[in-house]
Design brief:
This protein has two helices and five strands. By secondary structure, the chain is an alpha+beta fold. The protein has one domain. Strand 4 and strand 5 form a beta hairpin. The radius of gyration is 15 Å and the shape is globular.
Amino acid sequence: MTQNELNNENIITLLDDNDNAIDFEIIEMLEISGKRYAFLLPLNDDNADTESEEDEAVIFRIDLNEDGEEIFAYIEDDQEWEMVVDTYNDMLFDEE
């Protein structure tokens, strides 16, 4: 396996609400309280405001659809969102 293939394993393409393809790098996967979460960094978001959105990760919960396939789901619950962000931040500070 080449280095380029290794690097591409962490790259996925998702569609936004307007069906525009956006590449993301998977920067972290966490399991918290039996649920899995993916932290994604957009790689080619030409519409991003470079000052306010630069290097902002997007967080999704990984759920299963009715066919048993993994899908990315928005985290709509504020408490769940804060728990995931706090856990990630704690992990980052523990690594330093």
